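Action item from last meeting closed. Structure (754 res):
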């Protein structure tokens, strides 16, 4: 969904959800609390009985050098594990605690004063006490100490001993090149009566007050968003923090079955901060699938802006107690600790790159250096992304009725017409080609005979290749409502910890069972030769590569970490067998196996915390993996949304049918405004010509800079010097060298692109 209507949608959805929860809760006799922030004040999280140690920051004399690279000098306080990382390029010292002078004057009291002075925060729960509440604490509050400190190659290792809660938490810190790497070591975590819920390691790394600072926190909300430093925050958010799960919620631990989420999904395991001429980008290197990104502006519980990751080791779920599943209680996964090591890298940015453009650039370098993603090859023309919808079903009187939307012969005709009008490059995704159409999840080949069958698809692929187009077949093996492949929901579906079989909403109000990833992996092993026989260029995937859920199915059990590995294995095999794989809104754990992402989020949550959207995901990917946003013929504000695509470097994408959209209104999975090819043919050609002029010379170029010239005028700069300015305002924008028309754009070709 696009930016310009999302605020109203979010408010409406939130209100509807609250009303629904109140009604359902009344009927189910469920007690619940509305939490605005993860804090003792708002969440009724109790604290340890002891007042703990007096809050104090370590003295500068306590820090001892332990490691050094050409860029970083690392020093540690052995008594607390706090560190100082000096950037030798500019002399700035990055610390794991707030500025001591600011901290003394801040007047923070109580638990948060101890939090801000501690290198580690955590939450625990006494599982032996049925009335116990989670306890939020830290090193000082818990009378904690450091034991087993040792210097290791490039850093140090220690264990936090926390006597009040009975925890031991081993931690390792090292440096390499331009980054600091911190790790909570899974092996060595010890519990006693209290079970560990979460850890925030070095949560106040580079925490800073707003006064006199030009800065912001970057959070991976949707495509990316900033929380700008403010000296005063609205009273509406004084008890709120930003908190969202990396790769979205784990549905096995959802407390209700609603699929509606008011916050945009996190697809990138990153966050960062800029303060004046310094900045960093943090990348969650390991265990990110069990992490939340947490950020709080100054004025919310403390006077500091801080952003961190919360490493979750347990999670709440709803345990039903009757067959109707309308009674139950909330509990934790008491008998297990999630995941393995939890590793975060803090990349220190040079002064001239201490901004979100620099953060995106350093993350792009990380994707290339550590994930093996390679730069795209240049091409004379950009592709027009086309999706053809074959068919779907709608509810009939006695049985479902099939709706034929686009045959392969009709799709051939569309391709020819576009090619004849100057569309030089096309990438086609065929959806709803399987028997009974797009909502028949789990089905694979053969192609439904009513749209042409396998032979019709072979002819279509042959023509596409003659016209220089590539063809992908859309697949959905992560859902199965057909029993295809021998799927039996009772044996092969994803199950939550309470033993409930999980499903996913689609279309208007339909549900389809979620399939265990191990079943999907086994099912797809025998498919590659059949797909290859059609000479297609690749497949498109949906839930695989996007949705990560723990699975407590005893036959196919998989943790969330194992689900990620299984999905990566499926994608790797698809790439090895077919060469190309296209994702849809995919999590970045899928990137090494994808050559394109469709429906890459270009929006953000529009809440009271995040205030500025940025094209962070697009800046990180441009020149590596091609991407598009939503379909152009499904835009809510066509002109402005097209400008957003131009600003973000997104290629045009259309979804077409031969029949009018009105014929598909009642189809199970159809959710589009207007799709008939004859209505959109000329617009698709026109838009392709515009985008080809803008982007043909920058397809393989990195986006090196993005900025807001005014609130309405944005500038995107490419590696070869090309500049594209977009004006969302109602008046022409002028400066000394250039003008940008109202609700328009201006291309300034770089010298290397001329």
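Sequence:
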């Amino acid at each position: 969904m696009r930016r310009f209507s999302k605020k109203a949608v979010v408010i409406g959805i939130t209100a509807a959800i609250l009303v629904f929860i109140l009604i359902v809760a009344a009927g189910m006799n469920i007690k619940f609390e509305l939490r605005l922030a993860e804090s003792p004040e708002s969440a009724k999280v109790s604290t340890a009985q002891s007042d703990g140690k007096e809050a104090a920051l370590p003295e500068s004399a306590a820090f001892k050098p332990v490691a050094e690279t050409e860029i970083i000098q690392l020093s540690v306080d052995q008594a607390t594990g706090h560190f100082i990382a000096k950037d030798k390029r500019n002399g700035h010292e990055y610390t794991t605690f707030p500025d001591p002078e600011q901290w003394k004057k801040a007047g923070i009291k109580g638990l948060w004063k101890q939090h801000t002075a501690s290198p580690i925060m955590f939450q625990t729960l006494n599982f032996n006490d049925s009335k116990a509440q989670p306890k939020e604490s830290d090193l000082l509050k818990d009378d904690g100490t450091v034991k087993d400190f040792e210097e290791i190659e490039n850093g140090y290792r220690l264990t936090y001993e926390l006597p009040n809660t009975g925890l031991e938490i081993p931690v390792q810190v090292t440096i390499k090149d331009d980054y600091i790497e911190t790790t909570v070591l899974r092996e060595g975590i010890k519990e006693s009566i209290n079970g560990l819920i979460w850890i925030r390691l070095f949560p106040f790394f580079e925490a800073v007050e707003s006064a006199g600072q030009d800065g912001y926190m970057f959070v991976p909300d949707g495509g990316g968003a900033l929380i700008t430093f403010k000296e005063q925050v609205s009273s509406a958010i004084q008890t709120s923090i930003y908190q969202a799960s990396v790769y979205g919620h784990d549905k096995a631990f959802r407390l209700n079955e609603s699929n509606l989420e008011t916050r945009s999904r996190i697809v990138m395991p990153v966050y960062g901060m800029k303060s004046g001429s310094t900045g960093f980008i943090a990348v969650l290197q390991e265990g990110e699938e069990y992490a939340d990104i947490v950020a709080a502006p100054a004025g919310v519980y403390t006077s500091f802006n801080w952003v961190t990751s919360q490493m979750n080791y347990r999670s709440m779920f709803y345990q039903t107690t009757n067959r109707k599943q309308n009674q139950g209680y909330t509990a934790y996964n008491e008998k297990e600790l999630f995941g393995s090591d939890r590793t975060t890298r803090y990349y220190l940015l040079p002064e001239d790159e201490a901004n979100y453009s620099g953060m995106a650039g350093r993350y792009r370098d990380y994707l290339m250096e550590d994930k093996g993603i390679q730069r795209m090859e240049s091409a004379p023309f950009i592709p027009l992304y086309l999706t053809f919808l074959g068919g779907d079903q709608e509810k009939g009187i006695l049985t479902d009725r099939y709706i034929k939307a686009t045959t392969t012969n009709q799709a051939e005709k569309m391709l020819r017409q576009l090619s004849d009008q100057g569309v030089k490059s096309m990438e086609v995704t065929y959806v709803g080609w399987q028997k009974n159409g797009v909502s028949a999840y789990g089905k694979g080949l053969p192609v439904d005979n009513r749209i042409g069958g396998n032979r019709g698809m072979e002819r279509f692929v042959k023509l596409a290749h003659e016209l220089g187009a590539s063809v992908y077949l859309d697949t959905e093996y992560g859902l199965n409502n057909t029993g295809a492949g021998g799927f039996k929901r009772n044996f092969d579906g994803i199950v939550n910890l309470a033993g409930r079989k999980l499903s996913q909403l689609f279309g208007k109000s339909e549900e389809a069972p979620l399939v265990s990833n191990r079943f999907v992996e086994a099912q797809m092993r025998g498919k590659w030769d059949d797909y290859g026989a059609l000479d297609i260029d690749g497949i498109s995937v949906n839930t695989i590569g996007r949705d990560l859920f723990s699975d407590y199915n005893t036959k196919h059990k998989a943790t969330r970490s194992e689900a990620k590995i299984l999905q990566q294995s499926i994608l790797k095999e698809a790439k090895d067998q077919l060469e190309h794989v296209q994702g849809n809104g995919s999590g970045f754990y899928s990137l090494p196996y994808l050559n394109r992402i469709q429906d890459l989020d270009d929006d953000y949550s529009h809440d009271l915390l995040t205030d500025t959207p940025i094209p962070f995901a697009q800046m990180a990917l441009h020149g590596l993996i091609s991407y598009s946003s939503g379909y152009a013929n499904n835009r809510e504000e066509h002109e402005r949304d097209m400008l957003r695509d131009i600003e973000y470097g997104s290629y045009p994408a259309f979804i077409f049918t031969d029949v009018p959209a009105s014929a598909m209104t009642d189809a199970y999975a159809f959710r589009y405004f207007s799709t008939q090819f004859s209505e959109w043919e000329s617009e698709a050609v026109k838009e392709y010509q515009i985008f080809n002029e803008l982007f043909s010379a920058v397809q393989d170029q990195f986006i090196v800079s993005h900025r807001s010239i005014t609130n309405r005028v944005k500038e995107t700069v490419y590696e070869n010097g090309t500049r594209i300015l977009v004006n969302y305002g109602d008046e022409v924008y002028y400066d000394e060298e250039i003008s940008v028309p109202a609700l328009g754009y201006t291309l300034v070709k770089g010298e290397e692109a001329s």
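Note appended to the action item: The domain at 384-600+650-696 is CATH 3.20.20 (TIM Barrel).
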